[in-house]
Amino acid sequence: MTTARSPESRTANTRWLPAALAVLWLAVVSSLMVTDVWDESRVLDTVQEHGVGELLMTNWKQAELGPVVLFRPLPMMLFTAVAATIREPDLTWRLLRLLNALLVLGAGALLLDALRRSRGPEPGRELAFAVGFLFSGSALITAGWFANAFDATALFFVALAIQQLFRGRPSTAGAALGLALFCKEVAVLGIVVLVVLWWTRPESRREAGRALLIALLLLVSYVGLRSVVVPPGSVADLRPLSLQGTAAALWGLPAAFWWQLPAPPLPWLGWMAAVATSAALRSWRAAIGVAGLYIATALLYGPILNQAPGPLISPGNFAGRLYLVPAASILFLLAMYGRRFAIVVVLPLLLWGGAVTAHRHFRFQHAYLELYEAAAAAERPLRVFCGFYDPVFRYEHRNLVIGRLRDARWQFTEDGELIPRGRFGQRLLGPRDGGRTEGGGEGPAPRARRRDQPRAPAAPGAGRAAGPLQPALRGADPGRRARRGGAR
Fold first, then answer.
1. Do residues 11 and 121 touch, judged by C-beta distance below 8 A?
2. How far is the first Cα of the chain from the last one, in angstroms, to the nearest whole number?
3. Which of 177, 214, 252, 265 is most deeply buried (CB count within 10 A of its CB)?
């Protein structure tokens, strides 16, 4: 005769699962630490040239991206201070990615604690939430590219606000949500979550109302400070408000939301998952809140949600980061108010999207590692044509000059291949280049490595990069920045 186990014993036997998941996830993130790329390389170069005080003042005021201006001071100052203090590029990018990973893990732990305080121990529900959150494409790409510090810090403070509210600390919750606004604009979704909690939990409405009041006061302060730097939604803003772009994003968002990919393999399945999860909510008020989160996400990001996947070397590699805060917020509401199958419905889509994102980011970094190895083997700075760098970027520590160079003998293709240009390479330049050229040779050209050849050992400094002077940690679309950036 068998004796049924009590809920307490089942809970005790599953307490090790979150820690095991965290270790497994960190192992996956560690495997993605190949080399620094794009914004990471330019940040590393900036901190090598300037002092900590100068960098902190620059990044507190603004980060200019050509005609576009950012105002996200807290992560800019935090990550700039860390990078400028270490001043060892090969170590810095790894530590900053690890910091991103710890922020994501911390946010997940805070949301799990809030879930336990609201519903009591439910190992199955908590496990589904943790797996869907950690192994999604948004969490993996945020931990795998430290320029996503804006999303990581914003989510951490939003999660802290939710957890503090369930601990009966509304003032701390409101303050944490206010801090999240100074990390990234998407933190406003945290206010939507607090409104849902205020609306659906009459027993704690007073606490939620106090937290909301503090958060709204800080939101007014944030908008006022931000308007001094860049008016929200204006042409100078990173993503100007556009009714046409918002309408298109509203239509395409449910199809891609749970895949977290720029081009979902089965859009109709994404739509079915979005409808099924909304129907699985036990509270109609929570369902309205989820719909509000979808709409707010479309308003915040607009046309960027409809970007084409593009080739390997394109901004599509980082598209998953856009879904980190929205997906975590909706996952939390599904775990709190949904039926048992609510999160299970979207798990296959989240895991598939996470696997695709991780695989692509791994290939993306290896393509740059091969480029850096070729540059290290050249006697003089290797001059490489690449259409994504306009006009030219100089990476002194990489022995590399890359951009729209007419005299370059090598080309870095959109598929991540370093190939000889030859006579046909000149046809790649057209009127959009405006006749910009840079003279000078590159010395003996390195031999391009074929994909079927073994990789050469990494050259000294393979984790270092240098670039033009621009404020550190610019969190916008990388391709857009590369096109708008200028050579020093």
1. yes
2. 79
3. 177
3-state secondary structure 155-208: HHHHHHHHHHHHCCCHHHHHHHHHHHHCCCHHHHHHHHHHHHHHHHCHHHHHHH
Residue 209 neighbours by CB distance under 10 Å: 15
Q: In the chain, what percentage of residues exceed pLDDT 90?
A: 43
Identify the weakest region by mean pLDDT among 68-77, 155-164, 181-190. 68-77
How many Cβ atoms are within 10 Å of 23's Cβ, its own excluded? 9
Q: How many residues does the chain have?
A: 488
Q: Cα–Cα distance between 303 and 289 in angstroms, integer?
A: 23
Specify the higher pLDDT residue, 450 or 256: 256
> Residue 272: is its pLDDT beyond 60?
yes
- Which CA distances in Å does 332 have to 87, 209, 256, 417? 38, 20, 19, 41
d(CA 27, CA 207): 39
Whether residue 15 is predicted with pLDDT greater than 80 in this model: the reply is no
Tokens linked to 274:
């979005």
Print the SS3 string covering 317-347: HHHHHHHHHHHHHHHHHHHHHECCCHHHHHH
Amino acid, single-letter form, for residue 145: W
Q: Which class for 67: exposed (0-12), middle (13-18), buried (19 or more C-beta within 10 A)?
A: exposed
What does each C-alpha distance from 223 to 66, 164, 226 come to in angstroms? 22, 24, 5
Mean of per-residue pLDDT scores for the chain: 79
What pTM value is reported for the model? 0.82
Residue type, 18: P
For residues 397 and 381, what is the distance between their CA atoms, to the nearest angstrom? Answer: 10
CA 328, CA 2: separation in Å to the nearest integer?
A: 40
Report the alpha-carbon distance of residue 159 to residue 187 in Å, rounded: 10
Q: Identify whether the C-beta of residue 408 lies closer than 8 Å to the C-beta of residue 362.
A: no
DSSP-derived letter for residue 384 is: E
